[in-house]
Amino acid sequence: MKKVFYLNTCDTCRKILAQFDLTDWELREIKKQPITKEELTEMHKLTKSYEALFSKKSTQIKLRDLDVKSLGEKDFKELLLDHYTFLKRPVFMTDKDIFVGNDKNNVEALRTFFGVSE
């Protein structure tokens, strides 16, 4: 299994995806096709944390008046399943590896994984 979860309206996601040959990867646009409970469970097995998958930049945090510091793993799981913008993206996932988000270290790890140099 090789999947990429991304948001089509996110320039950063598109920029990162464009760097790699994703011919044999399943591309999942999370607004049109939200992540399933099973997929979230698979992601959690690899990250060992729902918080690691949670985007603290989601506009829904302010709209829902959420205090992120007071949230627990169960809350993160429920929110991730409730609204697509809570997923830190993009997420590249294989049976053994997961790369979550767009921070510099993650993108570097992806380049190494794909064997791509800058």
From TrEMBL:
<comment type="similarity">
    <text>Belongs to the ArsC family.</text>
</comment>
<dbReference type="InterPro" id="IPR006660">
    <property type="entry name" value="Arsenate_reductase-like"/>
</dbReference>
<dbReference type="Pfam" id="PF03960">
    <property type="entry name" value="ArsC"/>
</dbReference>
<dbReference type="InterPro" id="IPR036249">
    <property type="entry name" value="Thioredoxin-like_sf"/>
</dbReference>
<protein>
    <submittedName>
        <fullName>Arsenate reductase family protein</fullName>
    </submittedName>
</protein>
